[in-house]
Amino acid sequence: MSDAEHERQAPPRRGLALAGGPLAGVRIPGLAVAALVLLVFAVLTLAPQVSTYLNTRQQLKDATAKVAAQQRDLQQLDAQVARWNDPAYIRSQAGSRLFYVLPGETTYRVLGPPPTGATTATPSKTVQHTPTNWIDGLLGSVVTAGTTDSAHPTTATPAG
Questions:
Q1: Which of 78, 102, 77 is CA-nearest to residue 92?
Q2: Using CA atoms, how far apart are residues 26 and 17, in angstroms rounded to an integer?
């Protein structure tokens, strides 16, 4: 083969070329491959740092939200302490929770469920006082509980 024939042949190829198939004429230059390798290396190198950064940002947001919630709770507790420093609030709570009354006050306590199917009646204008003394009732209950053998002293035991 002469030099002229050799020059007429295909010029030397630079880079990679795919052999066969529909992309047989596509050439991939070496610079593109090197850039792709550098890009993959950069992504693999920076991915852990980016992940750490994003996790830290999320933890900071969570901590900020938690602090804000605790500050709201603290404000509510401060308001509650201020209420408990008010003597009128303490009196109202003692009355509603413990059924305490001040001397001279009369309390009313409704026992049992309301009657079914009953219509609303107008309350009477007179107040009735019960003649029982609760201290005598309590003392009688303690004495009865201590001196009887039955679990239910008011019920009759069957003969037998």
A1: 102
A2: 6
